[in-house]
Design goal:
The complex is a heterodimer of chains A (267) and B (91).
Chain A: H1 5-10, H2 12-15, H3 21-30, E1 32-36, H4 42-52, E2 56-60, H5 85-96, E3 101-105, H6 114-119, E4 123-126, H7 131-144, E5 147-154, E6 157-163, H8 172-175, H9 188-191, H10 195-214, E7 223-228, E8 233-238
Parallel strand pairs in A: 1-2, 1-4, 2-3, 4-5
Antiparallel strand pairs in A: 5-6, 6-7, 7-8
Helix pairs in contact in A: 4-5, 4-10
Chain B: E1 2-5, E2 19-22, H1 27-37, H2 41-45, E3 56-60, E4 63-64, E5 80-85
Parallel strand pairs in B: 1-5
Antiparallel strand pairs in B: 1-2, 3-4, 3-5
């Protein structure tokens, strides 16, 4: 596969990097990334992956754009209020980079459809807003042997981890064995979130995804990154593989996606 | 004194403070001391059986206590304890 003159010009600042080069840029253009949630995290991640030239981007979201989304969901504009998020996102990404393929799915991820999605993509970015989807994605990516870039945000705080349990690294359940029970905690709408925090974490998810595609640098495969926007502090903590993990431990009890993934929203 | 980092969701219990200090030679002692200063903290961290909730992690410096000695993990002057609950927001 060779690039056109326009593509060489578009990606010149990448191609000039020894760590990327023409070969790396081709890897990016052959890559297929699936973004779960065209919202706070999915917006900045999607914009940068599109700008980067990741060849195929999938957007999954069942929602429509609401005015209250625009404080952080920069894929969407005021004119898109009421439109489906994936369609609004597709328009924005196609305007930014018409060279890439954008596939949209106006639905929510379920245990019934997730494996079908994963079969078509190499790398998955979790920008969902609930624990059900997060645990489901973790388990499904393990079974389907896909790398998952997990980002999450709450008020002023963000977390980021690269999940490659199928390659022997810890999974999300090694980090947090179980989601919080329903009713213990306020839901996301009540909790609030600093808009720009979504940008910080979403862009870091894109950075991790690009490094995974290129196979360069150090990733967060065995670390958790914690960001506190109020104190402007980034911390990395260890994330060991748990031999007792119900999914990827030595005696797994979760062997398919038939379990109960219904849980509440946040601590 | 041990420095303890409080995550955003639990800051209402510490009057908004992101970092507090407590006494104790183990994680359990520090949490007990913190709970006497900021009542309610313990209940948010431990379940009915007194075990650390499975969606909350506690780190001593950069290490997850689940992979050390749990609540009995020893602390020394200068150690930093961080409480890090799972968060799910994204959209």
């Amino acid at each position: 596969m060779s690039f056109t003159d326009a593509q060489i010009q578009r990606y010149s600042r990448h191609i000039i990097l020894p760590e990327v080069g023409g070969k790396g840029q081709q890897k990016l253009s052959r890559a297929k990334a699936l973004i779960i949630g065209a919202g706070g995290l999915g917006s900045p991640a999607g914009l940068y992956l599109a700008a980067t030239g990741v060849g195929t981007l999938g957007l999954v979201d069942g929602d429509v754009v609401d005015l209250s989304n625009l404080q952080r969901q920069i894929l969407h504009t005021t004119a898109s209020v009421g439109a489906s998020k994936v369609e609004s996102g597709r328009r924005m990404l196609a305007a930014l980079n018409p060279e890439i393929t954008i596939k949209t799915y106006q639905e929510n991820i379920t245990a019934a459809n997730i494996l079908m999605f994963l079969a078509e993509y190499d790398i998955i970015l979790d920008g969902s807003d609930n624990f059900s989807t997060r645990f489901l994605l973790n388990d499904a990516c393990y079974f389907a042997k896909r790398t998952l870039i997990s980002g999450s945000i709450f008020r002023f705080e963000g977390q980021l981890a690269t999940i490659k349990a199928h390659e022997g690294y810890p999974c999300y359940r090694c980090l947090y064995p179980e989601p919080p029970p329903a009713g213990l905690v306020p839901n996301c709408q009540e909790a609030g979130v600093l808009g720009v925090l979504a940008g910080t974490i979403g862009v870091l998810q894109a950075a991790e995804a690009i490094k995974e595609i290129l196979g360069i640098g150090e990733t967060l495969a065995d670390r958790l990154l914690i960001y506190d926007a109020l104190e402007m502090k980034f911390r990395k903590v260890t994330r060991p593989k748990d031999p007792r993990c119900h999914l990827c431990g030595t005696h797994p009890t979760i062997t398919d996606l038939s379990g109960d993934y219904t849980v509440s929203c946040a601590l | 004194m041990i420095k303890v980092r409080i995550p955003t969701p639990l800051r209402p219990l510490t009057r908004g403070q992101g970092e507090v200090e407590a006494k104790g030679a183990s994680v359990a002692e520090v949490i007990a001391n913190l709970d006497s200063i900021h009542p309610g903290l313990k209940q948010r961290l431990y379940d009915e059986t007194g075990e650390l909730r499975r969606f909350v992690n506690i780190y001593v410096n950069e290490e997850d206590i689940r992979f050390l000695k749990g609540k009995e993990t020893a602390l020394k002057e200068g150690d930093e304890v961080s409480i890090v609950p799972a968060i799910a927001g994204g959209r």
